[in-house]
Amino acid sequence: MADTKREIERKYEATDAARLPDLSRVAGVGRVEDRGVVELDAVYYDTAGLRLAADSLTLRRRTGGDDEGWHLKFPVATGIRDELHEPLSDTLPRSFAALLRSRLRHDEPAPVVRLLSSRALQHLTDPDGTLLAEISVDTVCAERLAGEGTGTTATWTEIEVELADDGDPAFLDAVGKRLRKAGVRPSESGSKLARALAETTPVREEKGRRKEAPQTAGDHVLAYVRKQIRTIVDLDPAVRRDLPDSVHKMRVATRRLRSAFTTYRAILDRGATDPVGAELKWLAGELGVDRDQEVLDERLSTRIEGLPGTLVLGPVRGRLQVWSAARRTGSRRRIIDVLDGKRYLDLLDTLDALSADPPLRSAASRAPGKALPRAVLKDYRKLARRMDHALEQPPGPGRDEAMHEARKAAKRTRYAGEAARPALGKPAKRFAKRVKAVQSLLGDHQDSVVAREALRTLAVQSHAAGETAFTWGLLYGHEEATADRRERELPGVWERAADPVLRADLKH
Fold first, then answer.
1. 55, 118 Cβ separation under 8 angstroms
2. Strand 58-63 and strand 80-86: pairing?
3. How far is Cα 42 from Cα 45, in angstroms, rounded to an integer?
4. Which of 57, 78, 183, 433 has a beta carbon 3.0–4.6 Å from 52's, enabling a disulfide?
């Protein structure tokens, strides 16, 4: 696994009129240490269409300095990136190729820019000698190696201030204030690569009018669809890196996208979207192989920790751990195999093609205030039928199943409202919020149903092993009480979501 570092830095323009001031006067600085000059030679890689640069990703091979090798940077927020490092080699490291697969697909990255930098380094330390930040003055010469502007060069000088590991970002503010007082201004480019590409690309006159805000119903639906596609692609590396909640977020994006295809079938031709929806269902299923088990484990563990110690009898925690491990399927390796597989990459290609050439129907040209409410309310009516059916059922397995089906309808209706929010504004926001409350309640009820099934199994296993099943029975009772509360709360929560005023507001 590649070494990972959280890079927090600020960039500034360096000109003859704005020289580096005395930074020993910055609050907290005890000493400014001159670290000499380092010569850096970096080649940046991308696809012919600069797909990585378009997503603000940086892939380079650099010699010189303490960290020569391959570097891959993912944006986190303005001025913050996760930088991954692999040792110097002649070819792209396999780990980086995997992390970039959702962007590269079938392309091979090639050199696009070479940067030669002469870096004058200083370390800002506190009175005890602890590093606070590294400041560098970089004299840069960039050469375009491929694409428009091949052979073109550009030169500039910039100042970088990079926060030390585990440093306080407020220190960068203090340094920035001192620099600005000296006439040094923040850079307009977020990275050297971005500046190099901008300064070596031939300037062309803009043709046609600028991209306009969504106008039609089709515009709004496509904006939502493209956002979910973008989310899936963006989360791919996070899933591969096993970042917290990344699998869940990617799974949600697949569900939102599939739901949009179903809800807005009057706008997007289902003949084209149904097969894609089937593949999205497959992907969501693969991503959820162990996700449901994780949720269940967390719920049961929390329940156990909430009990007084005197009521936790027998090897309860150990039993839960063994049971959970037996149910897991090695999904970490399975998920990576899925993301590396042809079926998944074909799905990404299909989504790109659908985004570029959407299968719009005639309703797509209609005003969003007409077409979108009609689609949202159609989902609502399906939810209402399932809710009526669930509320009519007597307590027991039949009601549990009916509430589960209502939960799925509530999720789709909520997604429909959220997708329509940019066009319909606050009415769609209020509608989606009320439906989300219904979905959350039904979801907790369903989690209780699943938990009770698990607790019964654990109780049987404990009894067979000669252990007491007391704690499992106690937890089963807690879950029964939770389900009963949710069933009693449901009519009131549903009444608020079913308010006819909410639906009427969507139409205005």
1. no
2. unpaired
3. 10
4. 57
Amino acid at residue number 120: A
Closest Cα partner for 132 from 172, 159, 160? 172
Query: 323-336 as b/e, with b when 16 or more CB fall inside 10 Å?
Result: bbeeeeeebeeebe
Give the separation between CA 187 and CA 114, rounded to whole angstroms: 20
CA angle 363, 365, 366 (to 5 degrees): 70
Looking at the DSSP assignment, which residues form a beta bridge with residue 121? Answer: 36, 136
Output the six-digit token pair for 449: 């149903």
Instruction: Record the pTM.
Output: 0.87
Burial category of 503 from C-beta neighbours within 10 Å (exposed 0-12, middle 13-18, buried 19 and up): middle
Which contacts qualify for 318-321: CB closer than 8 Å, 24 or more apart?
319/458, 319/461, 319/462, 319/467, 320/458
The pLDDT tens digits of the residues spanning 159-199 come to 999 999 989 999 999 999 999 988 899 998 889 999 999 99
Q: How confident is the model at residue 207 (pLDDT cuts 50, 70, 90)?
A: low
Measure the CA angle with vertex 356, ends 351 and 362; round to 5°.
100
Which two tokens mark 68?
């020569």
Task: Identify the helix (H) or strand (E) that includes residue 95.
Answer: helix 94-99
